[in-house]
Specification:
The complex is a heterotrimer of chains A (273), B (275) and C (124). Chain A is mainly alpha-helical. Chain A contains 8 helices and 2 strands. Chain A has a two-stranded antiparallel ribbon. In chain A, strand 1 and strand 2 form a beta hairpin. The longest helix of chain A has 42 residues. In chain A, 22% of the residues are buried. In chain B, helix 4 packs antiparallel against helix 5. A 6-stranded mixed beta sheet of chain B has the order 5-6-7-3-8-9, sandwiched between helices. Chain B has a 3-stranded antiparallel beta sheet with strand order 2-1-4, with no helix packed on it. The longest helix of chain B is centred in the middle third of the chain and has 14 residues. Chain B is globular and about 65 Å long. Chain B starts with a strand and ends with a helix. In chain B, 32% of the residues lie in helices and 28% in strands. Chain B is built from 10 helices and 12 strands. Chain B has 275 residues and is α/β, with parallel strands linked by helices. A two-stranded antiparallel ribbon of chain C has the order 1-2. Chain C has 5 helices and 2 strands. The mean pLDDT of chain C is 89. Chain C folds into 2 domains: 68 residues, Winged helix-like DNA-binding domain superfamily/Winged helix DNA-binding domain (Arc Repressor Mutant, subunit A), CATH 1.10.10.10; 42 residues, no CATH class. Helix content of chain C is 63%, strand content 6%. Classes of the chains: A mainly alpha (273), B alpha/beta (275), C mainly alpha (124). At the A-B interface, helix 1 and helix 3 of A face helix 2 and helix 3 of B.
Chain lengths: 273, 275, 124
């Protein structure tokens, strides 16, 4: 018997954890869906019912909603995952399940980093698609289009504002951001096993304190190192220096995520009841 | 099956619960683990199951180190804690989710055990009383066919008929290759079930002996008067219930409660008898 | 079966088996319950039952046919009687004698009591 990883046992464990947490998970997901739908309805109902004139500005709530609420959703899921290990009776059952610590840990990663992110993106995307499709069908007429005429007065270009909205935002997408969900959930997953009670609040406060201290250190040391010195930047804002910073930032995020995950693994291994 | 060597354990650094504890347990026995409150019965069981880690010393369970929590060992351990948790799903869903981890899980046996305990399979775990849940978890644990069965106060919360059912089930669960350890306060629930007594006191094993060894060396009987042969006695309706050394090869019935109190009160007199 | 307080469990089980043999519930060459069945029925440790069966084997009351189980021995009844007699003489009679002595009961009275008892119980 392989005592570290066995794909069949891992499958069984995923299934077991799903039976255990699936219900709560689905309820949380349903609540999230409800909140998103409510937000969209409140913001867009007037336009769909054609009681208000449509402006593109009306769609501006989408990014903040996605970011803030998505953050909340994945952190809540992550900070609950190992929370029950703080209760002796539940912890005993979990630790005695014949699967290796590594498998139990990987299951945690799967549910918190992957499944929660993917499912949130999915429900957000579906809601967004539904509302915007409806909106489009209402405003397919000229009100959402801006036409430009040439000198002869003929129509030269027609811009579909909604289509414009759907188009890709810019030429440069910072891929490092894709690591953010993993990074964020790794912090809250660690919090869920590190604390015995009030996991979310305690994790948030610790994260704030740590990042505060870190910022202070960076700021102070930066001041110490660079004050009264002249900045030499020959490349301008788009040179290789910027790419390096982006790469460093991405690597830093990956590194921190891995560190948080390994601490979580060690905590799980050392967990006693 | 279990080899404990110089085990030191404490929940706090300077306050040891076990000091240099050594013990060996073998298959084919039902061990009764006794001790005062706080003597460390549950803690010892958790050490064996790998739920807590020793400060020093070695623990060997079927050739594995339980603190590594390897699946190969975990499939061979059935651990019934005193306080336990079951999710709020139906019994068959619970079995479906958990039984597959145990390669030897015996489904017909599980059904038979539930029937013996009078528990309908379709019942939801959330609608059950503490005692019923306990019976489900005991039935599940035994059906895993684990070689090592550890039970912490299993009869707590069981009603009178269930206790009898429990004794029957445990009597049939003991096989040549199984080792059963039961900790209990309610010695009367289990005294005919236990074949070896382990008593914890003062950071260590105060007594570990089979019922046969105990009754070979000690005699439990009612006496009218106390004399110097009596090691320990408690007044009763007709004189005293006394423990004395068994000089005449008398076959008396082990009185666990009396033995327990005797070990606590007269440790020094009993020690040489068992060495 | 209710266990009494003062006698070792394995001996009480032995009595139980002997009782069954004497009463003709288990006859010669019949199989007696296996160790496990007996342990379950009486709610005791199988090792205790094993000890009983070893004792009864030594007294030639039951014998072990390898791989099949335990059977009532040929002259089990006679052996049970002699075993029970020793037990009675050693364990129970002294208690009776003690009371006979303490309460000043005469042997004549005992004898007449004994005769009525036998008449009432065994020859109805």
């Amino acid at each position: 018997m392989n005592n570290t990883f066995n794909i069949q046992r891992f499958g069984l464990l995923l299934k077991r954890q799903w039976l255990e947490f699936g219900k709560i998970y689905l309820i949380t997901l349903a609540v999230a869906l409800g909140v998103i739908v409510t937000f969209y309805s409140f913001s867009l109902w007037g336009y769909i019912a054609e009681t208000k004139p449509f402006y593109e500005r009306a769609l501006n709530f989408r990014e903040p909603l996605f970011l803030i609420f998505g953050f909340l959703f994945i952190t809540v899921i992550a900070s609950n995952y190992f929370a029950h290990l703080g209760q002796k009776p539940k912890a005993i059952i979990d630790l005695m399940i014949p699967a290796s610590t590594f498998e139990k840990f990987l299951t945690g990663i799967f549910f918190t980093a992957i499944l929660s992110t993917v499912s949130f993106i999915f429900i957000f995307y579906v809601t967004d698609l539904a509302f915007l499709a409806k909106l489009r069908s209402v405003y397919h007429s000229s009100s959402t289009r801006t036409s430009y005429t040439d000198a002869q007065g003929a129509v030269a270009i027609v811009v579909d504002n909604l289509a414009y909205f759907f188009s890709k935002n810019g030429p440069h997408v910072y891929k490092g951001l894709y690591i953010i969900p993993f990074f964020v959930t790794s912090i809250f997953l660690l919090g869920s096993i590190y604390f015995n009670k009030f996991h979310y609040i305690k994790t948030t406060i610790s994260a704030m304190v740590f990042s505060g201290i870190w910022t202070a250190i960076i700021f102070k040391s930066g001041k110490l190192l660079f004050d009264n010195r002249t900045l030499i930047n020959r490349m301008g804002n788009n040179g290789p220096a910027k790419d390096n910073v982006e790469l460093c930032l991405a690597l830093l995020l990956v590194l921190l995520t891995l560190i948080f995950w390994s601490i979580t693994y060690v905590r799980l291994k050392e967990k006693q009841v | 099956m279990i080899k404990i060597n110089n085990l030191n354990f404490g929940y706090r650094k300077n306050q040891l619960l076990f000091k240099n504890m050594s013990m060996q347990l073998s298959t084919g026995h039902i061990y009764g683990l006794l001790g005062k409150n706080g003597a460390g019965k549950s803690t010892l069981l958790k050490n064996i199951a790998g739920l807590v880690y020793a400060d020093s010393g070695s623990m060997d369970v079927m050739g594995y180190d339980p603190s590594k929590r390897q699946p190969a060992l975990l499939t061979e351990i059935c651990f019934i804690p005193e306080e336990f948790y079951l999710p709020s799903i139906k019994i068959d869903a619970f079995v479906k989710a958990n039984a597959a981890f145990y390669p030897n899980f015996d489904h017909p046996y599980f059904t038979a055990l539930l029937a013996e305990f009078d528990i309908p399979v379709t019942q939801k775990l959330i609608d059950m009383s503490y005692g019923q849940k306990k019976k489900v978890i005991i039935a599940f644990g035994l059906a895993t066919q684990a070689k090592l069965v550890i039970m912490d106060e299993p009869t707590n919360g069981l009603d009178i008929p269930s206790k009898a059912q429990f004794r029957k089930i445990m009597a049939s669960a003991l096989t040549e290759d199984r080792c059963i350890i039961i900790s209990t306060h309610q010695v009367r629930d289990l005294d005919n079930l236990i074949d070896t007594v382990i008593m914890l006191d003062e950071n260590s094993v105060a007594l570990k002996a089979s019922v046969e060894e105990i009754t070979n060396r000690l005699c439990f009987k009612r006496v009218k008067e106390l004399d110097d042969k009596v090691i320990y006695a408690e007044p009763s309706l007709a004189g005293y219930n006394a423990v004395m050394q068994n000089f005449h090869q008398e076959d008396s019935k082990l009185d666990l409660e009396l033995l327990f109190n005797a070990v606590l009160a007269e440790k020094n007199k009993l020690k040489p008898i068992f060495n | 079966m209710e266990f009494r307080d003062n006698k070792a469990i394995y001996l009480q089980i032995a009595e139980y088996v002997c009782e069954h043999i004497l009463l003709g519930k288990w006859n010669t060459d019949e199989k007696v319950p296996s160790v496990r069945e007996m342990a379950v029925e009486l709610e005791v440790n199988p090792n205790t039952v094993m000890r009983t069966y070893e004792l009864l084997q030594n007294k030639n009351i039951i014998n072990n046919k390898r791989g099949i189980g335990f059977f009532v021995a040929d002259d089990a009844i006679a052996n049970v009687k002699s075993y029970r007699k020793t037990q009675f003489m050693d364990d129970e009679l002294p208690v009776v004698f003690r009371n006979v002595y303490l309460l000043n009961i005469g042997f004549d009275e005992l004898e007449s009591r004994y005769n009525t008892f036998v008449k009432e119980t065994f020859n109805p």
